[in-house]
UniProtKB/TrEMBL annotation:
Keywords: Hydrolase. GO terms for biological process: dATP catabolic process; dGTP catabolic process; dTTP catabolic process; dUTP catabolic process; response to stress; TTP catabolic process; UTP catabolic process. It comes from the Bacteria. The keyword Hydrolase applies. Its EC number is 3.6.1.8. It comes from Histidinibacterium lentulum. CDD domains: NTP-PPase_MazG_Cterm, NTP-PPase_MazG_Nterm. Residues 35-108, 174-234 form the NTP pyrophosphohydrolase MazG-like domain. SUPFAM superfamilies: all-alpha NTP pyrophosphatases (SSF101386). This is Nucleoside triphosphate pyrophosphohydrolase.
Amino acid sequence: MSDLVHDPRGGLPRLIAIMARLRDPDTGCAWDLQQDFATIAPYTIEEAYEVADAITREAWDDLKGELGDLLFQSVFHARMAEERGLFDIHDVADAMSDKMVARHPHVFGDEGRGKTAEEQTRDWEAVKAAERAAKSQDRTLDGVALGLPALMRAVKLQKRAARVGFDWPETAQVLDKLTEEAQELVAARDTLSTDEIEDEMGDLLFVLANLARHLGVDPEAALRRTNSKFTRRFEAVEDALAARGRRPADSTLEEMDALWTEAKRSERP
C-alpha cells in the first residue's frame, strides 16, 4: 500500500488507499478518525458549492481541484460505511452505474433514440417515481432531501406537486400571489412576532421560487449571479472611495449610492 499511496499516477485506487490509511485506528489521523457521517456532511455540501463556484468563474484549473475535493468526500463517506459493514466505494459506483443504465434505455437498452429531450425527461421522472415506489415512498413529496438548500428544495417540492396538478396554470397567478404575500408582510410587520415574520417571509420566498420555476429560471443560480454582481459593484464602490482616500465607513449613503450607479453604468456595453 505504501508504494500506491506515493504513486503520483495511482488514480482512484491511490485515493482509496490514502483514505484507508487516514482512518486506520492505529496509525491514522486523529481528526479523520473522530469524524462520522454527520460531521462530514457539511463539508460535502461546501465542496459541491465550490465546484459550482469554479464553473461559474470558468476557472478550469480550480475545477479540477474542486472536483477532487468532492470526490474525496464520496470516498470518505464510503470508507466510513465500509467500516460499519454497510457498503464500500465499489458498491457506490455499481449502484450509480445500475441507476444510469436503468434510466437510459434509449442508450443502453432496446428502446429507440428517436425521443425528444422533453420525452426523455418525462421517462426519467417515471423511472424515478418507480424507484421511489420500490422504497415505499408512496406520497407525492417523499424523497425530496431535507438537506437541500431551501430555495432548491422549494422548487423540487413545487415540481412534485405540479405533476399531480397542484400548480397555478399561469405565471400571472403566481405574480398575483407574490404581490399578496408581500403586502401581507409589509402590512403586519409591526404587529407580528419574530417567528410570525419569519413564517411570512418564508411564504414570500416560496412564491418567489415558484415564480422562478414558472419562468424557467433556477433561483439558486439567479441568486448566486446577483451575489456575484453585488460583490463586484460594491468592490468598485470601495475602490472609488479608496482613490479618494476614504472608506465606506467614512462616507455617506448618498455618496456610495452615486458610486454604485456609476459602477452599474460602467458595466453596460
